[in-house]
Write a structure and sequence with these properties.
This protein has 332 residues and is an alpha/beta fold. Helices cover 35% and strands 27% of the residues. Bound molecules: adenosine-5'-triphosphate and magnesium ion (MG).
Length: 332
């Protein structure tokens, strides 16, 4: 896959004015984005997502590191590099409040010097994609926050740039609108050839829209992995084993020393073991311990783990925890 964005050893610090304290917002982050990919930048509040996005779109200057867009260094050839990018930044809907939805689209299209005919068709199609057709003559300041957000994304799409950066596209939207925005983003990804980077701490956005996720925490990149791979990697490892009789103390000790993540539950009708296996084959090791006392096994359930739990685990324990080695995958 052809690389469209290359971020190499990016670093950004801020100076807290009063305390004279230095905050490292982005700490040696490197990644690549392939053409046509849709990648989620995921991380808790303050992780460095917005700072990273702003550096990619040239609004902030990195302390260290190089960003190239389509091979163009965005520090050396800022304007040329930025021609390939449009962005919707957090909380900043770059719209004219006293113009209507359609007027905004026409205005921004005019700004990019596109032909009238091409623009008319494109605007029509965007109004439909973003479910804004019935609001086309409404003033922007009368739109709901969700509609404004959709319009802001539509305006960004209008430019037909190779890359679109969306910082927190569903922030502050209600469940329904957030769902709608996700659906629209998915449609866009299927229909259009563009590359999209979405920063978010909304797991649903990452899980349902993105192919790959870059997880950052405290300014450091901790995961760069396909979303489906993360789901399978983590899913197979957690099991609940229901037993026909309680474990002996010796068995409990043996399991405890063999497995780092283990819970023995005795306050249910049947005793149960919640266990995470470093790899699926480790189940035999557990069986060996159960066999010592002929402990009957009544059921084994593989626990489903949702993306939110995976994220929490990665942020808390790091991605290399246990046997989750084969980390940062290359572009597929
Ligand atoms: N202008 C600034 N001056 C000083 N510190 C800043 C500034 N902007 C961001 N920071 C700090 O840099 C770190 C990263 O902030 P950033 O906004 O990039 O995080 P984020 O991942 O986008 O968080 P959120 O999920 O809350 O949007 C935080 O510790 C933040 O307090
Ligand atoms: Mg942010």
């Amino acid at each position: 896959m052809e690389t469209i964005i290359n971020v190499s050893h990016l670093k950004k610090t801020y100076m807290k004015r009063k305390q004279k304290e230095v905050i490292t917002a982005v700490d040696d982050i490197s990644f690549q984005i392939g053409k046509g990919e849709i990648v989620g930048l995921l991380g808790p509040n303050g992780a460095g997502k917005t700072t990273t996005i702003k550096m990619i779109c040239g609004l902030l200057k990195p302390d260290q590191g190089v960003i190239t867009i389509n091979g163009i260094n965005n520090a050396k050839h800022r304007l040329k590099a930025l021609q390939h990018i449009s962005a919707v930044l957090e909380g900043n809907r770059n719209l004219y409040w006293r113009l209507t939805v359609r007027e905004n689209l026409e205005y921004f299209a005019g700004n990019r010097g596109q032909s009238k005919k091409a623009v008319t068709n494109r605007i029509e199609s965007l109004l439909n994609t973003f479910r804004l057709k019935d609001k086309e003559h409404e003033l922007v300041n009368r739109l709901s926050r969700g509609m404004q957000q959709k319009l802001a994304i539509a305006v960004a799409m209008l430019a037909n740039t190779d890359v679109i950066l969306l910082d927190e596209p569903t922030l502050g939207l209600d469940v329904e609108t957030s769902y709608e925005v996700r659906t629209i983003l998915k449609e866009i990804v299927e229909k259009e050839q563009c590359t999209i980077i979405i920063s978010s701490h909304d797991m649903d956005v990452i899980q349902s829209v993105c192919e790959r996720t870059i997880i950052i925490n405290n300014g450091k990149m901790i995961t760069n992995e396909r979303v489906d791979r993360l789901l399978t990697l983590f899913e197979v490892r957690a099991y609940t084993v229901t037993l026909g009789q309680p474990l002996t103390e010796a068995q409990q000790m043996a399991i405890e020393s063999a497995f780092s993540s283990y819970d023995y539950i005795t306050n249910q009708i049947k005793p149960m073991i919640n266990i995470e296996l470093p790899s699926p084959e480790h189940i035999y090791q557990l069986f060996d311990i159960l066999k010592q006392e002929q402990t009957p096994v009544e059921s084994i359930d593989r626990n489903t783990i949702n993306f939110e739990e995976i994220f929490m685990k990665i942020v808390k324990e790091g991605y290399n925890h246990g046997n989750h080695t084969s980390v940062s995958s290359e572009l597929a």
